[in-house]
Amino acid sequence: MTAPISAFILTALIGLFLFFALSKRQFRNYRRERLRSKPFPPEWEGILNRNVVLYGYLPDSLKKELQGHIQIFLGEKIFEGCGGLEITDEIRVTIAAQACILLLNRKPTYYPTLYTILVYPGAYVAKKTTVVGMQHFEEMTVRAGESWTRGEVVLAWDNVRQEAIDLAGGHNVVLHEFAHQLDQEDGRSDGAPILGKQTSYKTWARVLSKEYQNLRRKTLTGRHDIMDAYGATNPAEFFAVATETFFERPKQMKLTHPELYKELESYYGMDPLKWIENNDQTAKGAGA
Ligand SMILES: [Zn+2]
Questions:
Q1: Ligand 1 centre from 197 Cα, in Å?
Q2: What is the distance in A from the centroid of ligand 1 to the CA of 266?
Q3: In a domain, 217, yes or no
């Protein structure tokens, strides 16, 4: 084959590839717009008001944005019941809402590598493999959730439901596992998600690594922290646990970990403490 013909075929192939890639993206955006603009079912709003305490704190503009995200999330992800659990709208909407709270106020990626959410009725038993040197050790552990880079999140519905209505507990398995999904978007689970323009990688690395080491020291010496000791396991768990605390106990976190709070506020583009303070002021005003 002569050189000009080869160049022509190559250019045509690149053109075709770009055409299909662009069409795919345009079709996806079109489909998302249609999902986003669908009327939000009143019974779903009832589920949010009953089951997701954070939803009640959101300003109206973010509630509207969240409803659009939920429509897209539910239109794109598959839910599978495990251990005999039948998937209902209550389960789908309660999980989708909390997963999508992490996407508010910024360009949402809708967890591009996630396809399926597996839901068990309660805590489930899974095999854990630990590698020490050349040896693999296996043990069975009880879990409330898992996040995998291969396209799955696993959740225990009992934990999801209880933690979604209880901010004081500071635990939220959905926020935890979907923070892992954000972290894993670059293919690695290392506590370093892809940062937006408003967050500096240098400051993020300095603050999070300092705070992670502090939590490790506290855990080793048996001292209490507002963040769960599980965050001291590794940097990925630290980011997931810090995310739970940021949304569930923002007041205490801002007071005891102001630098970490600032980094998470900049990464998520939200200040949950403001939602709670505004809500409290409105409640006081109404009661006066
Ligand atoms: Zn975790």
A1: 26
A2: 22
A3: yes
